[in-house]
Amino acid sequence: MGARGGLLLWLQLCALTRAAYKAWIPNTDFDDAANWSQNRTPCAGGAVAFPADKLVSVLVRQGHAISDMLLPLDGELVLASGAEFSASDTGSHPDCSAGAPALFRDPDRFSWHDPHLWRSGDEARGLFFVDADRVPCRHDDVVFPSDGFRAGLAGAVRVRSVSALGRTFTRAEDLAAFLASRAGRLRFHGPGALSVGAEACADPSGCVCGNAEAQPWICAALLQPLGGRCPPAACHDALRPQGQCCDLCGAIVSLTHGPAFDLERYRARLLDTFLASPQYQGLQVAVSKVPRSLQLREADTEIQVVLAETGPETGGAARLARALLADVAEHGEALGVLAAAVRESGAPVGGGSAAGLVGGAVAAALLLALLALLAAVLLLRRAGRLRWSWREQAAPAPAGAPLGFHNPVFDAAASKERPPARPPSLALKADTAGTSHSYFVNPLFAGAESEA
């Protein structure tokens, strides 16, 4: 069985066992246009140059006619079946310019911690992963291309297994020997350390990803094309979920789970029961287990459900969050959910601009009207058409006369202390102090409160 066949078999086994895996996307193939400076492969009869000081393994799948080739000081060209290089005269190929040669891009530009460079086996329409979970977690199986690739490591990285060049490494000593070999040094570089040996996630409620310490590297790689800064969120009081590098608009539902909770079953429920509805189109959902916040110490972990608004319409995340609260109140015991809390982002940034302009115009119009009225009064006074005089000071009231009037609101009988009102139900909390609202529902008490 070839290397490619072994990789496909490994992916099929991962799918059958529901094992989480992440696959490395970029490669160092000669025939991939993204690896060349002009975003196209060298034309026939053109000159080719590789970075002189870079260590790289390049896979060649097709035949190429070139006029010149500048090779690196160390590296290799792996020729697949049917691939070849032949010499060609530049003048016989008018589509090749006589200028600089085609440059193979820096193979060290790919970082392990870049979320853009990984593809998850759990991808589905309507689902996304927070940035830290897009990079391999400690319980994941990691799959690399069968031949040409190069990944940069920073910090300590530990995963369940690594598949590369048709081999699968599950023991730390075997992977260490591969990384020290020439084949390993051609494909992995950097000051980081890669190891395997973590157990697969056997908890039906899910496992924490374990990339909290690596998140600074993850965010730095993610935001490098943007100059290291997050784009501004399109709403007030934006939210930043655990594991996310930048703020987003929508809602976060935090679930306190019991031993009966099943993460995959709940994720499927979100897709089939809620996201399939037309009213929630344009929403994306991320479901993961995260460490519980320091303010709540009843359990070590909780389930974070992120509802992100990606379309121009707003308000769908808030509606879906309230629907999930109602779902927990009705089916929480069957789902293994003990309690739920919600946080929502504020209004869209541009939502209050029109109202502000209208309010400002009304205030300005009222001010002008008052100034005009004052000016008219002064003119009439000066012309003698308007007169006024001060009324004499009122004489003091005779002794014994009443000094006011009777108000039954403050009557002695009416002012007796009333019993305190019954406090509102704790099954649903709303924070109305600002534009960001939070709610809490506990299905264990929902039935008792409805009977009271």
TrEMBL record:
Domain of life per record: Eukaryota
Keyword Cytoplasm carried by entry: no
Q: Name one GO molecular function term.
A: cargo receptor activity
Topology in the lipid bilayer: Single-pass type I membrane protein
Question: Mainly localized where?
Answer: membrane
Subcellular location field: Cell membrane
The signal peptide, as residue positions, is: 1-19
**Transmembrane spans:** 357-380
Q: What GO biological process, any one, is recorded here?
A: renal protein absorption
- What keywords were assigned to this record? Cell membrane, Membrane, Protein transport, Signal, Transmembrane, Transmembrane helix, Transport
Which terms in the GO cellular component ontology are assigned? apical plasma membrane; endocytic vesicle; extracellular space; microvillus membrane; receptor complex
Q: Does the keyword NADP apply?
A: no
The protein in question is named: Protein amnionless
